[in-house]
Design brief:
Layout (H helix, E strand, L loop, with lengths): L25 H16 L4 E3 L9 E4 L11 E12 L2 E7 L2 E10 L2 E7 L5 E7 H14 L10 H20 L1
Antiparallel strand pairs: 1-2, 2-3, 3-6, 4-5, 6-7
Bound molecules: nickel (II) ion (NI).
C-alpha cells in the first residue's frame, strides 16, 4: 500500500475524461487500496483516480466522519441513475487546496457501479454523501467543483488561488 501524490489544479490531466474499467485485476485492487490510503491520509472524504494521475473510472468515498466507524465505498464505473432535489453546500477538493465554495447539486442520488470484482452494486445517498458522489463522478469527466461556479466567481477564484499558491511556494 502506498500514499500517492495528489495532483493539483491547474494540472491538465485533471481536465481529461477517464476510461471505463473492463479488467477487474490485481492492479485495479492495488489502485483502489492506494487511493483509500491517500484519501484517509489527506484527510478527505473522497478521491477519484485522475487525482492520483490514473485516467480510470474509479472513485473512493468515506463520509462517515472521524467519530463513526469507517464506511468506505469503492465504486468502479460509477453512474448516477436517479437524482432529485437541490442542495447548495460548501465544497472543497484535495486537488484545489485551501479553496471552498458552495455548489448547486442534487440533494438525493442513486448510483449504480461495480465493486472490485465486477459485481453490479447500487447505492442511494443524500446529503454529504450524495454531494461527494456527484463531486467524484465529475472528476471522471474532467470536471472540478470550481467549474460549476459562475464566470464571475470563477475569475475571483483564479486570482485568489494564484495568490494562495504563490504564498505556498514562498513559505
Ligand atoms: Ni475533488
Amino acid at each position: 500500500m502506498a500514499v500517492r501524490t495528489i495532483l493539483h489544479y491547474p494540472e491538465p490531466l485533471l481536465k481529461k475524461v477517464s476510461a471505463p474499467v473492463s479488467e477487474f485485476d490485481a492492479a485495479l485492487k492495488q489502485l483502489a487500496q492506494d487511493m483509500a490510503e491517500t484519501m484517509y491520509d489527506a484527510p478527505g472524504v473522497g478521491l477519484a483516480a485522475p487525482q492520483v494521475g490514473e485516467l480510470t473510472r474509479l472513485i473512493v468515498i468515506d463520509c462517515s466522519g472521524k467519530d463513526n466507524p469507517a464506511d468506505l465505498i469503492v465504486a468502479v464505473n460509477p453512474e448516477i441513475v436517479e437524482k432529485e432535489g437541490e442542495s447548495y453546500e460548501e465544497e472543497g477538493c484535495l486537488s484545489v487546496p485551501e479553496y471552498y465554495a458552495p455548489v448547486k447539486r442534487f440533494e438525493r442520488v442513486t448510483m449504480n457501479y461495480q465493486d472490485l470484482d465486477g459485481n453490479p452494486q447500487r447505492r442511494q445517498a443524500e446529503g454529504l454523501l450524495a454531494v461527494a458522489i456527484q463531486h467524484e463522478i465529475d472528476h471522471l469527466q474532467g470536471i472540478l467543483f470550481v467549474d460549476h461556479l459562475s464566470p464571475l466567481k470563477r475569475s475571483i477564484f483564479r486570482k485568489k488561488y494564484q495568490k494562495l499558491m504563490q504564498q505556498r511556494d514562498e513559505a
